[in-house]
Structures are given as structure tokens and as C-alpha cells.
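Quick one: co-fold with FE2/S2 (inorganic) cluster.
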Amino acid sequence: MGESLTSIFSTYSNKLKFYVNTELKIINNVNPKTTLLEYLRDNGYYGTKLACGEGGCGACTIVIAEYDNKSKLINYRTANACIFPLCSTNNKQIITIEGIGNPEMPHPVQV
Ligand code: FES
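Sure, here it is.
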């Protein structure tokens, strides 16, 4: 083991970078206990609801988009934001209900 701990940790960053819909977010020193839902609601994304708070009802469902280097495709999956750690959003796009339609052309789930 020729690498010192200092050089190993110098490759890590305390910055979290992700998108919410089309907005780039960069956050320093995220509390590892913060959920994605807490972050969203604290930052004005009220379309993502808090109901059970334990992953059982789906009121907080969001979409996570992530680029897959192997397939060169973007993978989309859903998650319950109330139990999804904010720390796990690095290099991902979070799509909330605010990001899927607009007043002129609402998405069917917004009608
Ligand atoms: Fe019920 Fe998240 S609030 S699953």
C-alpha cells in the first residue's frame, strides 16, 4: 500500500452535484441523514408530497435519471423520496412533478 490516506481522501469531495428537473444544484457538506424529500420540500418543490414518510404510500414518488456509461443510455427509475438519501443523488437528475409539464401543456398526471 503505497498510497497514503491523505492522497486517497484528497480525491473525494464534500460537494454534492445533481439536477432537480433542469436546475443544477451544488451543495456542500450534506447531512447524511437528510432525505431527498426533506431537501425538495425545503427548497420549494411542494409537488412531491409527504404522507406516510416510510416508503409505503408513494405520495413522494420521483423519477431518477442516471447516465449509464456501459450502455451509453440514460436509465430512468422511480424512488420514494421520503426514504431516499439526499447523498445518493450525486451526478443524477431528479425529476419531480414540477418538471414534467407546464400550465399550457400539463402532463396527464397534473390534470
Ligand atoms: Fe409515503 Fe414517501 S411519503 S412513500
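If it helps, The pocket of FE2/S2 (inorganic) cluster is lined by residues 50-53, 55-60, 80, 82 (CB under 6 Å).
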